[in-house]
């Protein structure tokens, strides 16, 4: 059993989602957004860091999963996003959590089955996979999708390693 904290970073809105994985079963624990309603970037980064630290204290996750930086058309936006990611990652590392990063395309492929899926498709699939009564807010849904992706990737890695172990022993179950 593991608790995964998924983060969809943003300098103004950082989505978060927390799930519990027990084998192949996923359970929703919480989600939402850290909203930074201040203008200067250093204050926004402080709020992101403090918010992530608070989530770590509240949910006691075992793993931290975050979306990788993508190439943006606007270099200034990409730099701010990178700094927001950095603040979140530092909070996780200071909390003693292992950090895993996933590309947006991989997250969409894992959750929706299409790497080019739009936000509404991600929301719909997250709702179905976690048996939620309604679609989560878009940034929170993206964060939950990142956590779900980590569960699938780690489950597949476990299956591959056990298959290799069985092959080394001379049999395949």
UniProtKB/TrEMBL annotation:
It catalyses: Endonucleolytic cleavage at a junction such as a reciprocal single-stranded crossover between two homologous DNA duplexes (Holliday junction). Mg(2+) 2 binds at residue 67. Its EC number is 3.1.21.10. The RuvA-RuvB-RuvC complex processes Holliday junction (HJ) DNA during genetic recombination and DNA repair. Endonuclease that resolves HJ intermediates. Cleaves cruciform DNA by making single-stranded nicks across the HJ at symmetrical positions within the homologous arms, yielding a 5'-phosphate and a 3'-hydroxyl group; requires a central core of homology in the junction. The consensus cleavage sequence is 5'-(A/T)TT(C/G)-3'. Cleavage occurs on the 3'-side of the TT dinucleotide at the point of strand exchange. Its cofactor is Mg(2+). This is Crossover junction endodeoxyribonuclease RuvC. GO terms for cellular component: cytoplasm; Holliday junction resolvase complex. InterPro entries: RNaseH-like_sf (IPR012337), RNaseH_sf (IPR036397), X-over_junc_endoDNase_Mg_BS (IPR020563), X-over_junc_endoDNase_RuvC (IPR002176). Its main location: cytoplasm. It comes from Tenebrionibacter intestinalis. NCBIfam families: PRK00039.2-1, ruvC. CDD domains: RuvC (cd16962).
